[in-house]
Specification:
Elements (H helix, E strand, L loop, with lengths): L1 H6 L7 H12 L7 E5 L2 E2 L2 E2 L2 E6 L5 E8 L8 H8 L4 E5 L4 H9 L3 E4 L4 E5 L4 E5 L19 H12 L6 H8 L3 H13 L3 E3 L5 E4 L1 H9 L10 E5 L5 H7 L6 E4 H5 L11 E5 L2 H7 L3 E2 L6 E4 L11 E3 L2 E3 L2 H9 L5 H14 L1 H4 L2
Parallel strand pairs: 5-6, 6-7, 14-16
Antiparallel strand pairs: 1-4, 2-3, 4-5, 7-8, 8-9, 10-11, 12-15, 12-16, 13-14, 17-18
Length: about 350
C-alpha cells in the first residue's frame, strides 16, 4: 500500500518527523497517485528529502522537503531565502495558525503531524488542503502565552491602534499594563511574526490584521454572564435614533458599527456595550429573547472598548480594531463583514491609526 511504501522510504536527518508527516500527506492523495522519495544534496546543500509525486497519467513533480522540529513564523524568511525558487514543502510536528498564514502568503506548501496540510502543484495538477489542530497538542512553555483577559485585550488594541515605532514602556503605559507583562507578550508576538522589533530596541512594525485574527482565537465579546439577548420588535434601524438621545455611556460595535465604514448588507444584529444592561434595554424598549434575537447588550470585558471611539451620524461607535475583533468572533456573516471592514482599514490607515 501507499503507506507501507512511505514506511520503507530512505529518509535521513529528521527521518521520523518527515516519515510521519509524509504519511499524513500520502493518506490525503486521490486514488491513483503515488509518492516516492530520494535523499541527496541539492544545489550544493543537504536536504531532508526530495519527494516525487506521480499522477495517474505517470507525469510527476519533485518537491523539496524542509523539516523543522520547531518553526517560528519569524524564521520563515530564512527558510525561503535558503531555497529561493525551489518547490518546497515545509514540515513540522505542529504549525500554528500564524505560521500557516505566513506560509500561504509566501506561496509555500506545508504539512504537520496534526493534519494541517496545504499542497499545490501545477504539473501534474494537484491541490490538497486539510485542517488539523489550531493549538499545539504538545506545547512548550514558550507556546503557552495566552491572549485571554483584559490585559491582553488592552495590549492588542494598543498595538493595532497606535502606529509604530514605540518602545515597550510607552506601549505598556498606553495599554495600562506593567512593562514585564508587555515584554513577555511582545516577545511571543515577535516569534509569531506579528510584530517587528529591533533587538533590545523599539517595536518597529505591527501586523495588525494578524494580531486581530490571533486575538479572536481566544477572545469573544459574547462571554457567558456578560451578554444578554433581546428583540427590537420594530427592527434595528429604529434603535439608531434612540441611541442618539441616550445620556448613559454606551458604544456600538459589530455589524451596525461596521456599516458606517464598510457596509456589506443590512444589519441583522446590533452589538452594544454598556455598563448597565437593564437600564439600556428599558431605554431602547427591548424585549428579552433567546430565540430570534437581534440585539446583544454586553458588559465590557474592559473599559478599553470605550477608548478611541467616534461619532457616526450621532451614534457612538467603537474603534475599527474593536469592531473587527468582535465581528471575527460573531455568528453568521460576521467574519465576512470583518474581512470587508479590515479591507477598508488597510486602505484608510490614516483615518483610524494614531
Amino acid at each position: 500500500t501507499l503507506l507501507s511504501i512511505v514506511d520503507n522510504m530512505p529518509f535521513s536527518g529528521n527521518s521520523n518527523l518527515v516519515r510521519d508527516v509524509v504519511k499524513q500527506l500520502a493518506s490525503k492523495l486521490p486514488p491513483g497517485w503515488r509518492i516516492t522519495s530520494t535523499t541527496r544534496r541539492l544545489r550544493g546543500r543537504p536536504v531532508d528529502v526530495v519527494l516525487r509525486i506521480r499522477g495517474p497519467a505517470s507525469n510527476s513533480a519533485s518537491i523539496l522537503v524542509e523539516a523543522k522540529h520547531r518553526l517560528e513564523p519569524r524564521d520563515l524568511d530564512q527558510v525561503t531565502a535558503a531555497v529561493r525558487d525551489l518547490p518546497l514543502l515545509v514540515v513540522a510536528p505542529f504549525l500554528s495558525a500564524s505560521a500557516r498564514d505566513r506560509l500561504k502568503t509566501l506561496g509555500l506548501n506545508y504539512a504537520d503531524l496534526t493534519g494541517n496540510i496545504r499542497l499545490g502543484i501545477s504539473k501534474p495538477g494537484l491541490y490538497v488542503e486539510t485542517r488539523g489542530a489550531d493549538k499545539n497538542p504538545e506545547p512548550t512553555v514558550r507556546d503557552r502565552r495566552s491572549l485571554k483577559g483584559a490585559k491582553a485585550g488592552r495590549l492588542i488594541r494598543a498595538l493595532c491602534d497606535f502606529r509604530p515605532p514605540f518602545g515597550l514602556r510607552e506601549l505598556a503605559k498606553r495599554a495600562v499594563v506593567d512593562a514585564g507583562y508587555a515584554s513577555r507578550i511582545v516577545d511571543y508576538l515577535d516569534r509569531e511574526a506579528l510584530v517587528g522589533r529591533k533587538p533590545r530596541g523599539p517595536i518597529t512594525s505591527t501586523d495588525w490584521t494578524g494580531l486581530l485574527r490571533r486575538w479572536s482565537q481566544e477572545y469573544s465579546p459574547f462571554q457567558r454572564g456578560r451578554t444578554r439577548w433581546y428583540l427590537a420588535a420594530r427592527g434595528i434601524a429604529q434603535l439608531a435614533d434612540k441611541l442618539q438621545t441616550l445620556s448613559a455611556r454606551y458604544v456600538v460595535s459589530g455589524s451596525l458599527a461596521a456599516a458606517h465604514f464598510a457596509p456589506v448588507a443590512p444589519t441583522r444584529l446590533l452589538l452594544c456595550y454598556t455598563d448597565d444592561i437593564p437600564n439600556l434595554a428599558q431605554a431602547l424598549d427591548l424585549r428579552p429573547a433567546d430565540a430570534g434575537s437581534n440585539v446583544a447588550l454586553v458588559t465590557p470585558f474592559d473599559p478599553v472598548v470605550y477608548e478611541r471611539t467616534s461619532q457616526r451620524k450621532g451614534t457612538t461607535v467603537a474603534a475599527p480594531s474593536q469592531i473587527a475583533a468582535d465581528l471575527l468572533t460573531s455568528p453568521g456573516r460576521g467574519p465576512n463583514e470583518a474581512e470587508a471592514l479590515m479591507e477598508w482599514m488597510r486602505e484608510n490607515e490614516h483615518a483610524w491609526r494614531t
